[in-house]
Amino acid sequence: MNLSLTRPLYGLTLGLLLFTTSCKTDPDPVPSGPPFVGKTYQLDTFTLDPAIDLDGDKKPDTDLTILMASCELDNTVRFDTGGKITVGFGASKCPDDDPNDLNGGTWIYDESRSVLKITDRDDPTIQTEWEVTSAGASIKTISRFEESGVTYTGTMIWKAV
């Protein structure tokens, strides 16, 4: 793995983990605001462009979903009213799943820029911004970072469950 890409990918991965871990039984009243508020989502696809070799097999990886453990892919996220992120573990449990990790942090949506800003619950200095290009039955989020003069684009599609 290219170590110079570790920090930016950590931000993408952190955002992903925050999003892949919602409680389906937490009923909120029908929210107003962005169309993704109050819905529970599960990661469907996660891609990176341009591709880079992340697993050390000397082949560039574009589809990061296939590099994730199956126990991470059934986790859910919910953007609650008031800016709280609720996360939940799916039926397939990962060995390091911690029931204390159901608070995924907070979110703010900048409608003028279509940007979702996520703040980590444990370290508020860690913030991730995602451009929301579509929302509703699914959310498409895009984040970009630059490393060694190359701009990488991470795209995640979340489906409502």
From TrEMBL:
Q: Which organism is this protein's natural source?
A: Spirosoma arboris
What name does the UniProt record give this protein? Answer: Lipocalin-like domain-containing protein
